[in-house]
């Protein structure tokens, strides 16, 4: 199992209706067939950390991760969501014992970035972005 956790906040000044549309879009992404479970909602961490929302998906294996990356719902959701984000930090967790899993996931992410320059530019434009694990 692979867990992808995003903690984020929207940019200052983003109207509530746009935030709601973006949350609906990523909620659809979180329900794609490749996802085993998901949570989209409020971040309950320390408010001083500066996050207001969280997105978490569980994916069974690398095959599910590939389907998730390639799902048109994922791209469509990100095209609505990413331009509105002011801070996004990612964490990844797994129970898989493969010592190379992190490298394999990083390679898939790099391939997605290289194959979709528009998506990569939107991700890179987030003012406070940290992609860990």
UniProtKB/TrEMBL annotation:
Domain Stress-response A/B barrel: start-end pairs: 2-93
InterPro entries: Dabb, Dimeric_a/b-barrel
Organism domain of life: Bacteria
UniProt-recorded name of the protein: Stress responsive A/B barrel domain superfamily protein
Species annotation: Corallococcus coralloides (strain ATCC 25202 / DSM 2259 / NBRC 100086 / M2) (Myxococcus coralloides)
